[in-house]
Design a protein that fits this description.
Length: 405
Amino acid sequence: MDIDEISKHFIHVYNRSKLFVKGEGVYLYDDMGSKYLDMGAGIAVSALGYSNEEYKQGLKDQIDKLVHTSNLYFNEPSIKAAGYVTEATGLDRVFFTNSGTEAIEGAIKLARKYAYLKNKDSKGGIIAMEHSFHGRSMGALSVTGTKHYREPFEPLIGGVSFAKFNNLESVKALVTEDTCAIIMETLQGEGGIYPATQEFITGVRKLCDEKGILLILDEIQCGMGRTGKMFTYQHYGVKPDILTMAKALGCGVPVGAFAASEEVAKAMCPGDHGTTYGGNPLATAAVCKVFEIYKDKDIIKHVNEIAPYLKKKLETLKEQNNAIIKDIRGMGLMLGMELNIPANQVVTEALKNNLILISAGSNIIRFVPPLIIEKEHIDEMYAILKRILHEPYGKRGAEKFKKQN
Ligand SMILES: *Cc1c(COP(=O)(O)O)cnc(C)c1O
């Protein structure tokens, strides 16, 4: 594979080094036939792994029937998928999108429309969190808490301020009578795998209730069973007014959604929002299959059984390499390993050793494997990481990193 040659027609926003052509279970195969253990799942998307027979059959059957009709009409898979989503979230109404970022766009629009109906002069203020990630479109970027993602594209949408995640006082300090929504990930992903504390999320919910502010939870990454419940907020005993989901929702077919309570959802009326493709029969057939397979195979029970094993193995690596591994954190099969060295160094080294890892921020490795992962795969990962992270390299790497920073 000649990287320069195959890269030349793409706008260069990714540094890609591999060409994968096939997947099977928790493994991907490159164009040379080499096999890789995947701890990234296409960025927390391929929860059912690769080449799941039932999933593939569901898609094939739908392709034979109907792929697209537009949202001017109902389609069968979307009716069923809407039922699954509302049942799983405890929310009342759903809108299907093509991506996570579009789910965020819709959530922001819904929150603003809701505020507008209450007060035509509403300025639609939104409080978001530092180090959050909500997507790359102009609206989603406006609430993303990383300055260097936002800055080159300003001016973005107005009225957004950033509080410190897990710091309730910093949120309270930003609330004004113009605040219409607070948006946050229940478990920050790109920002470095930081779960919300119970105190913080209960406090934010209470604040929202007192002030008539909507709580938007972004579970695009941490939803769909990854943390051991269908949605992460279900661990905390709180409920959002608006929820966004995507990534594992279609397990590879591009689909996202935002869902809301009846009270909030009814703020939208015909003409307020739309999408040509969103929720089309193929995409929602994928959503249906995903929910059905989760149920049949009790995927969430499996996550709860296997996740402690992954965490234990990562903790063991930390004990063995305390010069370079600073912290292990996260929930379920969404774990982070904070390093004293650049994460990319380890990601690159792992790839050379047939292990796919992804980073989150500059010094955190993010473990978001397919949810069907088994002990033997974790053992395989552990053996590779143990080899890569051995002390001499680790000590040298850590010193070098400290000097550079
Ligand atoms: C990936 C992600 C998004 C954006 O989703 P896209 O499908 O890439 O547009 C938004 N929020 C969170 C928490 C994400 O992890």
